[in-house]
């Protein structure tokens, strides 16, 4: 099940972010800031966070997303992570599919995800490709020399346009 994040999920989500071993201290701080904006500023619309629960109601993953500034019908997935012990079991796919369904409901048309070209993100890149996201842009040496920023995109058929 995918549902909006609640204040009581905060530590579970941060534990997952840390446990992936993928993120630097600054990246973890950035993830934490998004969590606190979402939980602490109910009126804001820039960042939304959802969690994935397993059959026992435990939080096993999360995703943050929001409308892409100045673009019509476009949404960014800013961050996502699934607990290392349960990766590869479909939780990530469920989170992304959930957002695709919502974006279609809202008449949106495009979802964007950025990631790094570092070898440690190989599995993450394959994950996006397997969900039919395609590389549409790459900025060489963006994060640091030898570390490109890759943008993946998926254009959706909105329900309203069908
Ligand atoms: C990337 C991540 C969120 C994916 O979540 P997940 O729950 O492990 O992924 P899923 O089990 O839903 O995989 C969905 C599909 O991706 C593909 N996939 C997943 N892992 C794969 C792998 N190691 N090799 C090839 N394809 C893979 C599969 O095709 C899978 O399809 P299936 O469900 O038909 O088997 C998760 O692995 C993660 O938290 N990684 C570390 C943090 C990270 O990189 N976050 C993203 C950057 S912000």
Largest sheet: 7 strands, mixed
**CATH class bucket:** Alpha Beta
**Overall pLDDT metric:** 96
Distance separating the two termini: 27 Å
**Ligands bound to this protein structure:** coenzyme A
Number of strands: 7
Task: Spell out the helices and strands N to C.
Answer: EHHEEEHEHEE
Residue fraction in strands: 25-35%
The structural domain count equals 1
Segments where pLDDT lies below 50 for 5+ residues?
Answer: none
The CATH architecture would be: 3-Layer(aba) Sandwich
The spatial strand order of the largest sheet comes to 1-2-3-4-5-7-6
Shape: globular
**Count of separate DSSP helical elements:** 4
Structural class: alpha+beta
> CATH superfamily, called what?
Gcn5-related N-acetyltransferase (GNAT)
Describe it for me?
Helix content is 31%, strand content 33%. The mean pLDDT is 96. The radius of gyration is 15 Å and the shape is globular. A hairpin with a 5-residue loop joins β2 (48-53) and β3. The protein has one domain: Aminopeptidase. The protein has a 7-stranded mixed β-sheet with strand order 1-2-3-4-5-7-6, sandwiched between helices. With 162 residues, it is of the alpha+beta class. The site of coenzyme A has 20 residues, from β4, α3 and α4.
